[in-house]
Amino acid sequence: MWLSGALAKVGSSSSSCSSSMSMLLPSFLLIVHIYQVTATQAESLLPESIEASVVDLRDRGLKWLVTGRNSEFGWDLGDTPRVVLALSSSASQWPAQNDLEARLTVKQLELELLDKLLRHSVDPVTPARVSYFSLALNGACKDARNFYGHNLVASLEKHTADQDYPGYPEAFGFSLTALVSCLSGSHLHRRQVRHLIAIATDDEPVVDSIDTRSMAVMALECLRRKRHSETLVRHIGEALKKIARLQQPDGTFGNIHTTTVAVQAMALGSVVPGVEWNRTAAALALRTMQRPDGSFLDSVPATAEAVIAATTLLNGMGLLSLKRGRCSEGAESLKSTLSQPPLWTTYTVVQAQAPKSQLDTTTASSNNSPAPGALPQQSNSVVKLAGDTTMASVKYWIWIGPTPLTAQIYNISLSVPVNTTFFAVMRRAAELDPNFEFSSTVWPNGHYVHTISGHREQPIGYHYWLLYHLPTDPDPAAPPPTTFVAPAGVDKLLVQDRDVYLFWYKKL
Ligand SMILES: *[C@@H]1O[C@H](CO)[C@@H](O)[C@H](O)[C@H]1NC(C)=O
Ligand SMILES: *[C@@H]1O[C@H](CO)[C@@H](O)[C@H](O)[C@H]1NC(C)=O
Ligand SMILES: *[C@@H]1O[C@H](CO)[C@@H](O)[C@H](O)[C@H]1NC(C)=O
């Protein structure tokens, strides 16, 4: 209810600009769609001039994201769901019925997910990945509870139900899953809510990180908006105060990633009394972090997060607008005109490079579009997720620079199923932290990683990325000898519990 009211408000004040949208316009014009009524929920919590600059930041971020789309209307490196989250939470009408490019992106999102589900026996889909896809499906007006017969939300819930919380290794994943459940209309058990509260408020959260605490706050805030619980308000306030204390004099909360996630949590909690933070300084800090081209770190995930942070500052909703069925409740303009070409048809035609103006609008039908006005059916088929198997705790380090004592160092601890490939670990790390972003080329014998954290190998200067498999954490004072160089490629290395890997950018 809290959501449909807000959507109705937004829908009515911005529907005029969407109806004039032609499917032939270049994609970046979709930015015209974006929230014209930014201050309705947030009651002008930002000074007017700052608000205008946050709007500008968000729009330029979105424009950069859309420019980086690949020829299949998705984003490389598994980033399609991230961008869909940014687009659908920031644009009041995304995907608009007559916005062809948006609809091709939705189709690509579905194809990428189907591909993962079909191959899940060789490369299990992780709960975090399924969570992002589920939210993106909500955003794309599709149903994560009946995705071609798979109930993704039930899969996630089954996965968390099987965990023993005190030893549950992934507080971030748990919180993200809880957010998906809440937005998808599930009831969270008391035990789960207690665990979320613990993650959000403990002085030593299970994973000591601002990101995890912020994600837990977002899930709790989703529950609070459904239930109006005073107890939740108190716990959220406590968590927000802890995050607020970490705001730096320059307005940031640490690096770009941490800042964008923290801002999302803080901006959602604006109704919680007694929480003081400097919203203006955070907005200005985001502004400083944006590159002239509109991106953040030249990275799709970082830019998508920053766009969502900006949106949350503006509307106090952010990811919380991505509720299941959001397109069939209170937002008539999203579902009314059903005369658009079915997606499968347009996909085929575009593949064949036909001019878009000649689209055949007569055949085929698109699966699982929700019936107007009603929540769609849900499916019983539960996908087996990676985490339903034995987990391994893996540490992954990056050293950038030939001299370890002065190198840039990043580390991340992940929990993945035993026997996951190291390549999958890298992808997971990249999902969670943009410092672990990487690019690779595919050779007959597997993936060859040439760029990590923005550093590309330079054969001319003999700078290469060398992978080590170590018995303990690497020590810059005693760098590992080449005997620890990993014996196989990233696709052949199957991780075991307590494995330590190091990717070192060094001169050979
Ligand atoms: C918030 O930050 C802005 C910009 O850095 C600064 O001008 C302002 O004084 C700060 N407000 C408070 C209450 O600290
Ligand atoms: C490992 O990463 C965490 C989180 O980013 C950081 O706080 C910690 O200092 C890092 N440890 C080392 C030894 O670099
Ligand atoms: C991991 O792979 C090894 C070798 O293929 C196999 O023996 C072992 O049972 C696997 N472990 C799990 C938990 O799947």
Automatic annotation (TrEMBL):
Keywords: Cobalt, Disulfide bond, Secreted, Signal. It is found in: Secreted. Residues 355-379 are annotated as: Disordered. One of its GO terms (molecular function) is cobalamin binding. Its main location: secreted. Transmembrane segments: none annotated. Pfam families: Cobalamin_bind. It comes from Allacma fusca. This is Uncharacterized protein.
